[in-house]
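Cross-posted from the bioinformatics board.
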Amino acid sequence: MIRRFAVKTLLTLLLVFSLTQGKAGAGEAPPIVELGPMLGYVGPEEAHIWIKASAPASGGVIVGEGADLHKGRAVSGPDLNAETDNMGVIRLTGLKPATKYFYKTTMNGIPDAGSPHAFITAPSGGAKGHFRFAMISCIGELERYLHLPRAKASVTAAWRALAKVPVDFVLQLGDNIYAGTTDTGVQRRMYDWHRRLPPYRRLMAATPMLAIWDDWDYAGGTALGDSDGTASGKQRSLRTFKQHWANPSYGQPSDPGVYFKFSRGDVDFFMLDVRYHRSPNVSDDDGQKTMLGRAQLAWLKQELVGSDATLKFLVSGSQWTNSGKPDSWRSFTRERNGLFDFIRDNGIEGVVLLSGDRHITAGYQVQQRFVEITSSPFASENHPPPYPPKEMFMLHDKGNFFVVLDVDTRIRPPHVFFEVHRVGKGMVRRQQLSWQVINGAVRIPTCDIFVDCRN
Ligand SMILES: [Fe+2]
């Protein structure tokens, strides 16, 4: 038995050695982890980790509960090769809920020389608990600005600011990069530039990042048009998106897209794709016009009505409010109101709307019923709000922002606070969303002019 084990070990070492030699080639440096690792979905029993290698290699991870990884388990991942620009996701399974794990990436079986990273698995499904998450959007810069020191400085400062605030995970709600095209090469360059920035890289190794897209990371950027279901090359964008993130899933087997659901204890998150199936904003609302597409909308309704979660966050790149710009749910009110009616008719409680896109951070009570928090811009410029502040109760429109949601479901009714953090200033607002406000039983005083919203 022992002899067989020794032979097996020797064979494994030989295999690793030959792979290393074979992939690196004579005189070439062996492949290293060039970007990442980035934590993606971290559930109660699994964790997804994204990496990009410097050259084709077999990626993997050693994971264990001890910092020295002495009893660590080696998990092999996909082949990282030219087809995926040497990127891939390693899926760790069989983990214990609410447990701290240490991990190191491996290239061709050889562990990374640096210190291990760590993460904590999510609590068991349905468990009550306290957690915090950040939501950000409008994160990057246009490619033509990337060479400018200020581009690097603003994105770096934003990630540094976020790293100082304790959160359990980060939601990136779109305009995560400003590619403005479906071209794979441009999109990859934008992701690479961003993920090379040291504070972002440090944070992504230790804090799960989950993402959906908006116009700039999907296709043309709204100004260029076609950031909807008619965009040519959208399949290319979808493939590139999937290669760069480690979300739990993407769309459904029969319906492509980046949407997915995940749960944290007894809280559900519905991360929506508001681009892939979207009708043009200017189309007539003839009964067919759609933001989500038929399959995604049906999926969302089915999941909502079947959910016994205390809170349900509906997360959209575009704003939900009636006072959004035309490139938002404002141009899709038939579908949106149908969803709102469905929530009301089925007595679904605890729904909170989240959004990005607008280059302002704002709060709304949509149709005097649903609370919406918009978080933007994390690291790009401000855009003035162009419409009278209908439904608005809060506005931060000067500076870079991220919003943190602080959720405690151990208390009945649950406590939900949101915090507005301004880069360079720290937390500028912390406000509770009472259970009555969340369920539309109490109206939040709205402001009629922008100056009042800024208070
Ligand atoms: Fe943006």
